[in-house]
Amino acid sequence: MTRELLLPDAAATEAIGRRLALVLRAGDVVTLSGGLGAGKTSLARGVLAELGLPGEAPSPTFAIVQPYAPPEVRLPVLHVDLYRIDDPAELEELGLDEARLDSALLVEWPDRAAGRWPDALALSLTPTPDGARRLTWDGPAAWEARWRPT
């Protein structure tokens, strides 16, 4: 079931990421959809900050995969940006399925790997005319029981 929430500013977007971090586990995949500047990286930064990352997390656009591991964070996380992936076959080279065994994945631009993570919590951010962001989310029943951002 798709749900939505209005986030008034970037701080609220990051705060939702912090709340998500409280229930995130190794093996989880959270997909982050939305256009350029929609707030995907802000939400991921909130997750990483709550997990203990000191300072601001860089966008993984150029690195494609930015890993974080203890002691830097409490839970191993791969922050992934698939924007520059043109061929789904390139995903195999990233080793995401193997990494998922002991890490959580935060995946920006998941449309580049459509259908790859059917068990993911799918988050989508859309800017509104007044500068807010509309967050919509959908996920399997396991996520419904764990994550309630409102």
Automatic annotation (TrEMBL):
Assigned keywords, A-Z: ATP-binding, Cytoplasm, Magnesium, Metal-binding, Nucleotide-binding, tRNA processing
Pfam families recorded: TsaE
Regions annotated as coiled coil: none
SUPFAM superfamilies: P-loop containing nucleoside triphosphate hydrolases
Localization of this protein: Cytoplasm
Keyword Membrane applies: no
The keyword Cytoplasm appears for this protein: yes
Family named by the database record: Belongs to the TsaE family.
Protein name: tRNA threonylcarbamoyladenosine biosynthesis protein TsaE
Gene symbol of the encoding locus: tsaE
